[in-house]
Write a structure and sequence with these properties.
- The structure is a homodimer of 268-residue chains.
- Chain A has 268 residues and is an alpha+beta fold.
- Chain A folds into two domains: 11-123 and 235-265, PSTPO5379-like (3-Layer(aba) Sandwich), CATH 3.40.1640.10; 125-234, PSTPO5379-like fold (2-Layer Sandwich), CATH 3.30.2040.10.
- Chain A is built from six helices and eleven strands.
- The first copy, chain A, has helices at residues 16-24, 48-60, 125-133, 139-142, 178-185, 234-242; strands at residues 38-47, 67-71, 93-97, 100-103, 116-122, 149-155, 165-174, 197-198, 224-230, 246-250, 256-261.
- In chain A, strands 1, 2, 3, 4, 5, 10 and 11 form a seven-stranded antiparallel sheet that branches.
- In chain A, a hairpin with a 2-residue loop joins strand 3 and strand 4.
- The longest helix of chain A is centred in the N-terminal third of the chain and has 13 residues, at 48-60.
- Chain A binds chain B through residues 48, 51-52, 55-56, 59-60, 67, 69-70, 72, 160, 183, 186-187, 189, 193-194, 267-268, and chain B through 48, 51-52, 55-56, 59-60, 67, 70, 72, 160, 183, 186-187, 189, 193-194, 267-268.
- Chains A, B: Belongs to the D-glutamate cyclase family.
- Chains A, B: Keywords: Lyase.
- Chains A, B: This is Putative hydro-lyase D7003_12985.
- Chains A, B: It comes from Arthrobacter oryzae.
Amino acid sequence: MPTPAGRPVDPSSLLPAEARALFRSGLVTPTSGWSSGYAQANLIIVPKAQAFDVLLFAQRNPKPCPVLGVLDAGETSGALLAGGDIRTDVPKYVVYQDGRKVDEPTDITDHWRDDLVTFIVGCSFTFESALQANGIHVAHIDQGVNVPMYQTSVRCEPAGEMAGPLVVSMRPIPASQVADAVRVTSRYPAVHGAPVHVGNPAELGIADLGRPDFGDPVRIPEGHVPVFWACGVTPQAAVMESRPALAIAHAPGHMLITDARDSAYQVP
Amino acid sequence: MPTPAGRPVDPSSLLPAEARALFRSGLVTPTSGWSSGYAQANLIIVPKAQAFDVLLFAQRNPKPCPVLGVLDAGETSGALLAGGDIRTDVPKYVVYQDGRKVDEPTDITDHWRDDLVTFIVGCSFTFESALQANGIHVAHIDQGVNVPMYQTSVRCEPAGEMAGPLVVSMRPIPASQVADAVRVTSRYPAVHGAPVHVGNPAELGIADLGRPDFGDPVRIPEGHVPVFWACGVTPQAAVMESRPALAIAHAPGHMLITDARDSAYQVP
């Protein structure tokens, strides 16, 4: 991709602030592979009147909704995006009114209100690097597509007005590496942690792995087991179901690139 | 201690529901050593109007304020205390009005309001069992006193009206076992996790280890290093400083005994 100066650069080598500046100046792209080593994040923005319900929903459903940071009402920057602006620094947003998608802007300045509270929620991109570093292939990266995501028949623990289904992402893992994948991802509880389900998709109410609700289907190689992790799209599904007057999220795959290092979320 | 029927029982062998029933019927005692294997918890109860600030304070300060559960406004029971009643099932409470302690009742039914939200916050008793199981002596248990707790000069990340100092607990650990103590407790992020400080108390603004702000002093054996963990009294200190009209907490050492097993909070 070109920089503003026209020279090609490797997006994986950009510092988060440099990446955010490019998005601020109008670049629209999925962020997979950008700013290697830095945590990317889901976004959910709601009016202060809904903020307690959203935060409580996250507390009660920490696997799909691991909160990395919360900006105060009206605040547009913070430690996770130093010098940045949450209204412009994500490549693409989704705006919901009464639970319906009404806009997919690249800048939400026109939608901004002083009572909006921004939740920055962990993303599985962080543990995918750790999987690869441990010799476990990530199929959707190898196949050059988005991770497949599915609404399940599992209900989240509700909180006030917020209620909805658990959304999961799926990665096919060789049977001999399932235990390693569990071990590696369980060290990242702040970015969805260990899988929620290994094997039979029907038990999650998923009829056809080839037809994900979000993202792209992936081919499941012979001898691989479908492994399911809680997904940061879950709060968006709850917003769609609980229908607050206004909610803003990132567009799937178009994440906030934060200044936090992936390694900061590893335990123990 | 006697049961209602008069026969002596070992408090460590009581199920949580049995222990809560004894407290409900009027028994007042510190809970250290009770219901072995089950998680004990700190309590902070505030009106709904303050609940977002308290939950956000906890989110921003997860080491001192690891939230295990939140009851809805007016709710008096929940999965962590099945069949129980949060107004009666803790041996002793502290009631704050405008940040000042006004009562230390054994039952808060008279103070209850339908807008009160209960936060159940993890407690280091959980990792103390793990320390002992790993061959690390816990001095205050060996010496038969309460753990010493200190207000530090470290400020918590504020949230709305909630602001205050980090409160820490201190355990002297043999120099050769400090690394083990870090390793063991870091596996319990939901109950304060790894230490926040090892060694020199002056750097935390603690002038005299012999004069704790809460709990009892402990003797520090030769060759032991003072090791400091974030403490669940921290939200009470913030309540004292931020002065909501009403707040209710457990009395130090008189915890809520939950139905959750200690092992549920171990990672990975």
